[in-house]
Amino acid sequence: MSRPMVELRGIHKSFGPLEVLRGIDLTVLAGQVVVILGPSGSGKSTLLRSINHLEKVNRGYVRIDGELVGYRQVGGRLRELKEREVLRQRTHIGFVFQNFNLFPHLTVLENVVEAPVSAQGRPRREVTEQAVRLLDRVGLAEKSRSYPRQLSGGQQQRVAIARALALEPKVVLFDEPTSALDPELVGEVLDVMRDLARGGTTMIVVTHEVGFAREAADTVVFMDDGRIVEQGPPGQVLDDPQHERTRAFLAKVL
Ligand code: ADP
Ligand code: MG
């Protein structure tokens, strides 16, 4: 039995009067892949951003590999960590965005090398060797000297994945990683993600790619209106959904 890598407990988040997360409980075991499905506005991005403390939750807590994110416990109270410590925690949480967010003025290789050197203080030579291996793994060995603008969207997203992996994260969060891509480029990114899933990377993936969920997920979570409506193995949630809202959503995306 593998250990819990991500634990979300009783997460509530509001923006002013708008309650976006209404009590989220989720456990992701080491090496597991969780795919989150749900309509636009249901709180999926806010949930991912809460995991690495980009959003401060109003109630509840997040643990990564047993460690509270954003807080430490002092007596019975939670005290917020200093920014520097939050940044350190964040380096253990990979984040892949819809729009890649590569540094435009850095080459592909420099994009991958940057954070492990500057944020983790690792030796540049060691990180560079690892970056070369990672770029090979995502099929971009020959693009290491190119700049992001010279790459297709699918290639840029694969660089973003290599960059996330270079931090040797405990978990990688993906927020609709293929939504901004031309349809013919979606497959190459999903292939890389399938490879990670098989290789034992702990992943939480927000996506509308139901085929990916079916093949790669250990658990599929359906979110609506700030709550987890149902969760279970893909065969159960996708083929035999128990809730009307899940059925209605699947009917639209399938
Ligand atoms: P999803 O990713 O499922 O589409 P989001 O988490 O992006 O949903 O958004 C959930 C709800 O929270 C939406 O109604 C959105 O408008 C609102 N929201 C998200 N971020 C903010 C913010 N920073 N300020 C105010 N409202 C926000
Ligand atoms: Mg979103």
Automatic annotation (TrEMBL):
GO molecular function terms noted in the UniProt entry: ATP binding; ATP hydrolysis activity; ATPase-coupled polar amino acid-transporter activity
CDD domains: ABC_HisP_GlnQ
Record-level GO cellular component terms: plasma membrane
EC number: 7.4.2.1
SMART domains, A to Z: AAA
Pfam family, one: ABC_tran
PROSITE patterns linked to this entry: ABC_TRANSPORTER_1, ABC_TRANSPORTER_2
Stated name of the protein: ABC-type polar-amino-acid transporter
Reactions catalysed according to its record: a polar amino acid(out) + ATP + H2O = a polar amino acid(in) + ADP + phosphate + H(+)
Gene3D superfamilies: P-loop containing nucleotide triphosphate hydrolases
Keywords in alphabetical order: Amino-acid transport, ATP-binding, Cell membrane, Membrane, Nucleotide-binding, Transport
Membrane topology: Peripheral membrane protein
Enzyme class, spelled out: translocase
Organism placement in taxonomy: Bacteria, Bacillati, Actinomycetota, Actinomycetes, Micromonosporales
Intracellular or extracellular location(s): Cell membrane
Residue intervals of the ABC transporter domain: 6-250
Stored SUPFAM superfamilies: P-loop containing nucleoside triphosphate hydrolases
Family matches, as InterPro entries: AAA+_ATPase (IPR003593), ABC_ATPase_HisP-typ (IPR030679), ABC_transporter-like_ATP-bd (IPR003439), ABC_transporter-like_CS (IPR017871), MetN_ABC_transporter-like (IPR050086), P-loop_NTPase (IPR027417)
Species of origin: Micromonospora endophytica
